[in-house]
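Project standup — Tuesday

K.O.: blocked on the structure for the chain from last sprint. Re-posting the sequence here as requested.
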Amino acid sequence: MKKQNLRYIILTTIAVAAIYLISSLFSHLALSQYEDAKYGFSFSYPQSWVMSDMSNMGSSIAIALESKDTDKLLESKALPPEYRHNFALYHFDDINSIEAQGGTGPGSRFNYKSVDEFLNDTDTMRTTNKIGDVIIDDVPAHEVIVGGNGSAYGIMAEIKNDGIYLLLFERAVDKSFLGTKEAKLIESFKFKK
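H.V.: unblocked you, prediction finished:
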């Protein structure tokens, strides 16, 4: 009986220490707030990341964030160019464009009625593939892997009368590569309603 009590005390102490460590990591992360009136979203991001507003470049990308050391990493070839951004947010009017679909493959079509229909179409080879479902700001969304020059983890949400949002973490080949900074960004993401 005493061994069980000791084991319980040790495990409880370890659990409390782990919770404290995780919460202290989140509380010590210096964050900036971004709000985009044009596309209607906001989120917090690490102050150590540099933001680029890409919305006026004629692309579907609204903003991109990268580490301050990105240029050095690119110059030294330690980081491939396709992984330049830690995070990029894309906005598409609908799923029926090459950009929204992440490129094309054999049998591509552009007459989908929704993101759900596109992601569940098993007859088409594509570079955006659903790996799960998630809720972001009370909005049902899909976890996706976007391929092409590399693979990246993303979250794709379709907002009625507002289009499609793709939150793309270019340096994460899957969800397991997300760290505290990325988790905080996802947790803080809000759609204007």
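K.O.: great, moving the ticket to review. Residues 15-20 have pLDDT under 50 and may be disordered. The chain has one domain: 29-191.
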